[in-house]
Structure prediction request, 336 residues.
Amino acid sequence: MKFLKMLLSIPLVLLLVVTAACGNTDKSNGGKDSNKLTIGYVNVMDDAPAMLAEDAELYEKHGLDVELKLFGSGTDLIKGIVNGELDAGVLGATNAVSWASKGADLKIVGGAQMGYHSILAREDSGIKSVEDLKGKSLASQKQGSTADIVLNGVTFKEAGLKRSDVNMNYVSPTVAVQSLQSGKVDAAFLFEPYDRIARLQGDLEEIYEIGEVWPFPCMVVITSGEEMENNKENIHKVLDAQKEAIEMLESDPGKSAEYIYNRFSEGDTFESSDGEVAAVDVIEEAIKAQTFNWKLTPENVKQIQDVTDLMVEQGVMDEKFKVEEIIDLSWQKEQE
Prediction:
């Protein structure tokens, strides 16, 4: 019960932070001639490169004055880039594709993180495989999200399931964890750090992780075509800083966790079924579970195209779209 209270309190704190941040729409960009930039992010482990670059003062090291702005979802964040509120952001490639297909002037300019989504099932649910989800309840993100697209287009499809075979609960990640722990659902499709937080109670089993069977570049760095035309040097500095952050995340997850753990916890510990656990250790484990990568290879571009084709197949987009039209790897070529 004590642990459940902890879980209920943490999401509320995060939700309040997100809501407050989203309520402020003032742009602090100092202009195209300055080194001031506003970068959007979502408070999930996928966006750790943006957070770590801020907390380890890497943006400052590369000559930038960055305001990191928190958003509640990728949908809200991409609107910030489209309307000029933001200079860049770290978010799902599907957001850029969806808006670019409608004419928005957007560019994918760098990599960030490969997709990590696990299915955790209650041990008393009898679920041992994806196939066992038939007739069971599963908490996941809303329809049309990147998670929902790959869940239906890859995970369910390979298991011979249809969306209608599973009792879907479309909720936020925090509510998914609460629903899983309270027994409201049998399983949940989660990303980090919610996966690690959910596991603290025990009595859960990972039956699937999409990154192990169908890796794809989930999170990328997105900016506008106008920014790349008029503010290219500063956007490249953003990528320099985030590259350094990604290298720290991959080589020293413990040190990285010390910088960013308090973005996911209001205190220094989480409570688990076995007592208190250091929050920095939980976040270190969440970092280790990820694959961060600043490069976008030709294979990665094809993988983004594959997800885009799934969006058309599932009716999320009306027509096919060539991802290559919005890929700008000019910074990456400078690294080679």
User: Anything to note?
Assistant: Residues 1-31 have pLDDT under 50 and may be disordered. The longest strand covers residues 106-114.
